[in-house]
Amino acid sequence: MLVDYHVHTALCGHAIGEMEDYVKVAAKKDLAEIGFNDHAPTFHVQDPGLAMASHQLPWYVEQVRALQSKYNRPRIKLAVEAEFVPGYEGELRNLLSQYDFDYVCGSVHIIGDWRFDDSRVYPNGYEERDADEAYAQYFSLIRQSARCGLFDILGHMDLIKKFDYWPKGDIDHLLEETIEVIASSGVCVEVNTSGLRRPCAQIYPSEKILRLCHHYGVPVTLGSDAHRPEEVGLDFDKAVDFVRRVGYTQVATFTRRERVMVDL
Ligand SMILES: [Zn+2]
Ligand SMILES: [Zn+2]
């Protein structure tokens, strides 16, 4: 069975369409589950183009609940994609404790004050940085996000490659160290097809990373990172081929933060 655990809404300020239209596309593509995973309010930056504001969170939860009662298939999951920012773990824990989320996806889109993922300001910041150093900083944040205990899923865990940006040196040891930490922390890694629509033109994470995940027993789930209804489930044929080729036969699903593995 297939699930799309990474779907946004217009609340984040950079997605479009009605929430129900995302559900309808999931139904048409016969997905068993769709997870609304919109950008949770952030603490360190206030930007209506990046994430929903805290006063919008109750409304978001209400909308997901209403759709849950309207649809049996796909099953609809309540989740958020939360920015991992060292130093704000307490604030995030408080925020997450207010709702009965099915899962929480942790992501890193910002390193310090560098919004490396933000296409509105790209290529701001890229020219001044050493790619190897940027990769080391990024994966350090990924390890911290795995260890912090706030997340069930790590979103697009090599997002740093988004703009076709690659390290010059060999980073095998960095990747292995990172996957070991992820394995011991028990979080799941998302196979996110949106990388295919970006300059890097490949799924997040890379095949090398996914092979390490499989080797260390890290479970995976699937996400499209849809920011418009027609992107729900996009390129899932490629994602399924990819995870099967690496050796996975199951994906993770979540209900009230309990993980259940299901056959692909
Ligand atoms: Zn993201
Ligand atoms: Zn996203």
Give an account of the 3D structure:
This protein has helices spanning 19-28, 57-70, 89-96, 131-147, 172-185, 207-215, 236-246; strands at residues 3-7, 33-39, 75-83, 103-107, 153-154, 188-192, 220-223, 250-255, 258-263. It is an alpha/beta fold and 264 residues long. The chain has a single domain, classed as TIM Barrel, CATH 3.20.20.140. Helix 4 (131-147) packs parallel to helix 5 (172-185). The longest helix is centred in the middle third of the chain and has 17 residues, at 131-147. The termini are close together. One zinc ion is lined by residues 81, 107, 109, 155-156. One zinc ion binds at residues 6, 8, 81, 225.
Helix and strand layout, with pairings?
Layout: E1 3-7, H1 19-28, E2 33-39, H2 57-70, E3 75-83, H3 89-96, E4 103-107, H4 131-147, E5 153-154, H5 172-185, E6 188-192, H6 207-215, E7 220-223, H7 236-246, E8 250-255, E9 258-263
Parallel strand pairs: 1-2, 2-3, 3-4, 4-5, 5-6, 6-7
Antiparallel strand pairs: 8-9
The structure holds zinc ion (2 copies).
Shape: globular
The hetero molecules present are:
zinc ion
Q: What's the CATH superfamily, by name? A: Metal-dependent hydrolases
CATH topology name, in short, is TIM Barrel
Please state the CA-atom Rg, rounded to the nearest Å.
17 Å
> Under the CATH scheme, which architecture would be assigned?
Alpha-Beta Barrel
The assigned structural class equals: alpha/beta
Q: Span between N and C termini?
A: 5 Å
Give the total of beta strands.
Answer: 9
State the CATH class.
Answer: Alpha Beta
Output the helix-strand order: EHEHEHEHEHEHEHEE
How many H/I helices?
7
Q: Residue ranges: pLDDT <50 for 5 or more in a row?
A: none
Strand content: 15-25%
Sheet with most strands: strand arrangement: 1-2-3-4-5-6-7
> What fraction, in percent, of the residue positions are helical?
25-40%
Largest sheet: 7 strands, parallel
Rounded average pLDDT? 97
- Domains counted in the coordinates: how many? 1
